[in-house]
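Bumping with the actual sequence this time:
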Amino acid sequence: MTDKRSDTKQKRIALPFFGIPRILPFAKPYKKQFIGLVTAQILCSISDVLRPVLQKFALDHFVRESTLDGIVPFAFVYVLLIVLTAVISYFGVKGCLATEVSMDRDMRDKAFAHLQELSFDYYNQNSVGYIHARVMSDTSRIGELFTWQLFDGTYFALYVLGAAVVMLGIDVKLTGLVFLVVPVIIVLFAFFQGRLFDLHHQIREINSTITGNFNEGITGAKTIKSLAIEEKTDEEFMKETSHMKRKVMQSARTYGAFSMITNMASSCALALVLWKGGILAADQVGTFSLFMSYAQDLMEPVRWLVEVLALLVQAQVNIGRFTDLLNLKPTVTDSEEVIAKYGDCFDPKTENWEPIKGDIEFEHVDFKYPDGDEYILEDFNLKIPFGTNVAIVGETGAGKSTLANIICRFYEPTRGRLLIDGKDARERSQLWLHSALGYVLQAPHLFSGTIRDNMIYGKPDATEEEIQRAIGLVSLEGVLDKLEKGIETDVGEGGDLLSTGEKQLISFARAIIADPKIVVLDEATASVDTITEQKIQAAIDQVIKGRTSIVIAHRLSTVKNADIILVVDDGKIVEQGRHEELLAKKGYYYTLWMRQYEDAAISEVWGKK
């Protein structure tokens, strides 16, 4: 078993300067803004360093000498410093916010674009909540670190440096007492940094789990209520939040201990200045005032350092997870030569795309999933000529979708080749193939918008004639006639305002409008009622004409007219042939057919009763 603590230490070592160099590419476009922010803080720090000097002058000149000579220019300079500081602070805060928002946008755009490039298996292995946290929460914390903390850090560093120069020029011993706290802070920082990093890493991981559970609780609300498992779901959520509370409390105690010890050290340094400076107060009241002002003001950088420590160690986690996402490589990729000729998903060179006919061939294909140990296909060969209707059948969970996933290049063969129109699919771009696919899932997904928006999603320039033709093919008129706004009806988030059958008909119409050369139907009729199934089945018979079609089916009655039937059991193809041939063999397909026939007969009898 891997030691998590050693893993964490390795990650910490791999993140010099808190991982900041890994985010610099997102900061470079805003170099001018950062220079402006630093300049503003230089001016602010100079102004604040000068104020105690002016106060010393006022005490030594106006108070001790009891004179008002020069009071007007002094007052003018003092007020001018205050006004300049206020104005610079305003533009500094405005610039910080603008830069933070811009960096957040760039990082989120980059992360979302990268997510579009990742392969199918990434989404199988990671929850929506986990991905959401990477794109939103982590980028927000990184943007805050690079702007506000840089803004404050620059000010405090320059202020401390300026104050030190002034104090050293007046009294070296008193200056040493003021800065006595610095080595203490460094030692404490080194001691507490590792523990706080570990705790914040755990907290962020737990938070991702909570976000995922929250998302499932909302999207799966109907299922939760139908199963009456509200109490169980609530208990699981409360268990995770309680776990997070314990870790946050551990972090708070650790951070509190660091803060307490640091503040005690700072207070001791201030007390020493009061004691030593009090001896000078009788004849050097201006000097005493200056040192007390600096000593008190220098407590603010110490407090800032204590607070920013938590942000810095947490930022290591945020930066690490965000950059790990960007560094993640898709398992299915196009070669540089293919991208140069055909483009990629964001910059397709469609002028170089050859027309797709629809011939498919598996040539000595071995396949196992990236995280699997057993081969699902071994030396598998199959020719699917253009226009062939291939059905893939088997029990639930038998692995029927594997072949379709390989054909769609959601996964690559482990060995062997997938040929499209006689050429290795890897010699052309993924988008070239995907643009010719029509994929209808068992659980249809609709995008926010109207029914029309969803129907033309794959072909935005579809004509009204094409839309009406698709409506007719899938018998969608009956659904549209019942809706007040017809085809302009809003479908809601994920299509939740419509029934599963209605969503399936719309997704089927969407595939038809795209006019694909290869159609993949993944149990497209499994989630609809009998009447809707009959409508879709009638449409299927029309749509697959003149196209290569892959039909994954659980109900064998829907595929008995297929040109070839592949029978899958436990991830392996155990039989293949036409319906009559497979029945004649009286093998596994025959057993499935008879079982479904008997189940249907029993259901019919019970229905009549």
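The tokens above came from a reply further down the thread. The CA atoms of residues 13 and 19 lie 10 Å apart.
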